[in-house]
Amino acid sequence: MSAVNSNIYEQKLDEELQKLQKCQSEHQVKSCKECEHYIGCDVRKAYVNAVYNSMSKGDTGGFEF
Hints:
mainly alpha; elongated; single chain
């Protein structure tokens, strides 16, 4: 895996984290679990997917820790 591809996943993760933090701020919560929109939230789902892709670098299957 090249450093460029790895950086793409890290950049996407940073973007989704910023969106998540903005959403939490707007809803005045410190955690998504405190939000009434927790179940089915597209912002949270995009963040979770970005975390997964960042950890797996786009590969399917297990993680390497």
